[in-house]
Amino acid sequence: MMWRKVLSVSLVLGLCLFGFAGAGSTETIKIGVVGPRTGPAAATGAAFEEGIALALDVINGEQGGILGKKMEVVFEDTGGTPEKAASGFEKLITSDKVVVTVGESHSSCALAEVPIADRYKHPLIIAEAWADDITAKNSRYVFRAGPCNSGVVKDNLLGFIKDYGFKRVAIVAENTDWGLGIKKLAEDGLTAMGVTFMTVETERQSQDHYTELNKISAFEPDLVLAFIYGFGVHYFIAQANETGLFPQKALILEGAGPPSLWPEFWQNVGDAGNLELFLSRMHSKVDFNPVSKKYREAYTKKFGKEPTDYKSRSIYDVLLVAADAIRRAGSTDSEKIVDALEKTHLEVGSGVVQFGLEKGDYRYHQWQPPMLIVQWQNKEQVVVYPMNVKTGELKKK
Amino acid sequence: MQDFLLYTTNGLLLGVIYALSALGVSLIVGIMNVINFSHGELYVLAGYFSALFARGLGLPVTLAALLAVIMVFIFGLILERVLLRNTYGNDMASLIITFVLSIVLQNAYLLIFGPYPQKPPGWVTGSTHLFGLFYYGNQRLAALGVGAVVIAALFVVIKKTWFGKTVRAVAQDREMAAMLGVNPTMVNMLSFGTGCALAAAAGVILSPIFPVTPTVSVGVSLTAFIVVVLGGMGSLTGCVVGGLVLGLVQNLGAAYVSSGYKHFFGFFILLLVLVVRPTGLFGQKQL
Fold first, then answer.
1. Helix H or strand E segment including A145
2. Contact predicate A220/A204, CB 8 Å
3. Span A109-129, average pLDDT
4. How far is A174 from chain B (nearest CA, A)?
5. Phi and psi, residue A132, nearest 5°
6. Cβ distance A73 to A319 under 8 Å?
7. Ordered strands of the A372-377 beta sheet
8. Which of chain A's residues have a Cβ under 8 Å away from the Cβ of B263?
9. Separation between Cα atoms, residue A180 and residue B260, nearest integer Å
10. In this complex, which of A214, A243, A262 lies closest to B127 when CB atoms are compared?
């Protein structure tokens, strides 16, 4: 009788497993998200989660899903480290069987993922990793619907410096792919403009910036470009204030953006945060289009507060782009999705996404959203650049 | 000259904190022959307690800091009793237990406090124009002063008090100390608690300047181990000298070579010491 019991149990287990596998493979289309939920930029993971929830409301709610199925998101934590990002991304493709992956917030992580996307011929849409090299590798499977270093420097930073007449600029950059990449572009741009500048590098994980600040103070700049991502930039700003540099002698423009919007910003910098400048893709008084307005209203309704960290909208946007591409491809086949992505013409919260198709440099598969330069003035965000959308005047002291 | 003075002041500050944090590791190694891998997590725990008591309960910052150190001391006593006491004589078992404990604590912090930095309020505000040459944060100066006082107090306790004598007796010859009436188990327990309290002291002193996060503990532990190896395993004097050397080398290296590789200089000097004098600057096991 034992064999009957064994057979019965095996049959039941087999049916259960088949049922689960069947349910997983037929009822949803899985999309992978890669981003930091732990580590120094874990706040980005929280922003991503908010954006994912809002995007799923739109895609599975009012849009009625994709190809007759619901979209399911599998979020893999990168911890902000390339090795963890690479293994997490590979797991999404091979184990979770996602059809497209979106996200990222660290260039070093995205650069580790590019060869994996190539190896598995898997579409990857970067939201917030800025190093030019990510798209400059000209991978057929890698797209970026978000800022890149060249776009930010050329479209925003250099114009801001020129239009406001800054004369001496100090650059402090973390020694990462993003930091060193954007530093080099800023140096080249300032050289071409004839602006005097100096550069100092710092460690990404460093909490103490007195050494760098002493070198910067000796240069007597009127503007400091701080290319430090994560909480490190909070410490830099607080210590710049302690050492009498900011805002007494120079303004600080934080070149990453979200760290100045994280909930811990004011706890970490105290009153020293006043007059700090930062890059952003979003401001409550600047709506780029109806989608950005709709996003803001949906965010406020769902979470009971105004959206601050623009990376929630960045992930929202790329999920809409992915859903649109799968829908137009009419299939989850990666080659068809890539073909559809190349033909994208979709209005999202930051503008109309349309990827570059000419191979040769970083512009291939790149779409650069418009960016804002915002200044904290008495804990209020004031847009000071571009000039045509500014909501107030730049304050220097 | 102005630059050199600033870099040296900053090096001294970090050196004192490095020493303070490493003294706990050294004390535990010297007496119990246990390498506490969860040392950094206890530093972080004190930072969290300090922030919680000051911001959450509204206690005065100094009282919050003191309470945090006491809480970590008690936590250390419990850890010794529950996890470590049965591992004495088995170095590998205690190593693995403290290593696992560090991972468990990191994840517990992540779950309880989230990934964001927690910062207790500063004890003082503003900055001082030091030597008439540069501005230096008052909180840093306070940390330097309090750190030095705590280190001095530890030396007085170890060298001049009855408790210190029993601790040194156990470190030198456990069996002989037991025959003379010292209770080695109790000394172990109190020493482990004191080692944890030293990590906590470093945590509460430094967290108003550098907020704590769940993973910042890895760097704290690593730095403490570098200082202990640099100064000589189990040597308290070596710890202080090692901490100061590391703080100064890191800051002067960052200033005059490259600030992008601050931690490289620490590892470089560690390698140099290990090659030239493998027992560290002050030999071994001399409390």
1. strand A142-145
2. no
3. 97
4. 7
5. -55, -35
6. yes
7. A196-202, A168-174, A223-227, A251-254, A277-280, A372-377, A380-385
8. 203
9. 11
10. A243
> What is the residue whose two structure tokens read 């030999």?
B283
Q: Say what angle helices A210-219 and B2-32 make with each other, to 10 degrees.
A: 180
Q: Is the peptide bond before A247 cis (omega within 30 degrees of 0)?
A: yes
Question: Rounded to an integer, what distance in angstroms lies between the CA atom of residue B18 and that of residue B16?
Answer: 5
Q: What are phi and psi of B136, to 5 degrees?
A: -135, 130
> Terminal CA-to-CA distance of chain A, rounded, Å?
88
Which positions in chain A touch B254 (Cβ < 8 Å)? 211-212
Which helix H or strand E contains A278, and what residues bound it? Answer: strand A277-280
> How many CB atoms are closer than 10 A to CB B133?
13
Give the tens place of pLDDT for each residue, A284-327. Answer: 778 788 898 899 999 999 999 988 888 999 999 999 999 999 99
pLDDT digit string, tens, across residues B109-168: 988 988 788 899 999 988 998 888 888 999 999 999 999 999 999 999 999 999 899 988
Closest Cα partner for A256 from A232, A272, A280, A287? A280
Q: Give the Å distances, CA to CA, from B244 to B28, B138, B144, B154, B228.
A: 20, 20, 12, 17, 12
CA dihedral sign of residues B27, B29, B33, B34 = positive
**Which residue is associated with the tokens 């934080």?**
A254
How far is the C-alpha of A350 from the C-alpha of A369, rounded, in Å?
6
* Nearest residue in chain A measured CA to CA from B208: A268
Question: pTM to 2 decimals?
Answer: 0.81
Q: Hey, is the C-beta of B132 within 8 angstroms of any chain A C-beta?
A: no
d(CA B117, CA A281): 24
How many whole angstroms separate alpha carbon B46 and alpha carbon B52? Answer: 10
Cβ proximity of A227 and A251 under 8 Å: no
Helix (H/G/I), strand (E/B), else coil: B245: helix
Residue B96: count other Cβ atoms within 10 Å of its Cβ. Answer: 13
Taking a contact as any Cβ pair under 8 Å apart, which residues of chain A between 279 and 338 contact chain B? none
Phi-psi region of A230 (alpha: psi -120 to 50; beta: other; left: phi over 0): left
- Write the CB contacts of B90 (distance below 8 Å, at least 6 apart in sequence): none
B46-92 per-position pLDDT tens digit:
999 999 999 999 999 999 999 999 999 999 999 999 999 988 878 88
Please tell me the distance from the alpha carbon of residue B20 to that of residue A17, in angstroms, as a whole number: 56
